């Protein structure tokens, strides 16, 4: 082919390609546009998926927290239930005690009356150590028993205290002043008692001494051989001299 012919053919081919390119340019742009839309939509979908995944993780964390809290609450509720059960047992026990209070009072009030009567009889038969003081204590107990403002428990405590005081008289060494009746004469003396073993009386001028005889319920005058011992005994009881061995008139046990 001649050069002119080849050039003409190239021109025709180029025109044909140009026409074809122009023919496909419109649909290609549309495809590219749709692809871009698809990519944008895919990106948006991925963002939504990422957001949903994050939400699901948060929900999972919340769920686990709720499960843990529920388990803790269950354990705590079981603990509280045991406490309530135990408290109910205490309440039931207290209620039974309350219900029995009246019955207890009905039994203990007569008992206290008998205890006071027995205490008074004992004092009148006992060695007269601080006798008037002890009888006054019994009278106060009787007054308390008739006082509605004093509870039964407090009344019972006072009765037991009186018995405790009486018990202490048997173990104490004591000296105190008072009066005795001898042959119808009222004499001021200083008493000395060695528990309930011996009760002695010494005149304030320390010239005469007596010993109490509980069998005859009377004072027996002591001989001069006991006078110094009685004086020494009163001084020891008063803390004036150290304790030491002394000779006292003690009635032997039968």
UniProtKB/TrEMBL annotation:
Keywords: Signal. Residues 1-25 form the signal peptide. This is TonB system biopolymer transport component. It comes from Glaciecola punicea ACAM 611.
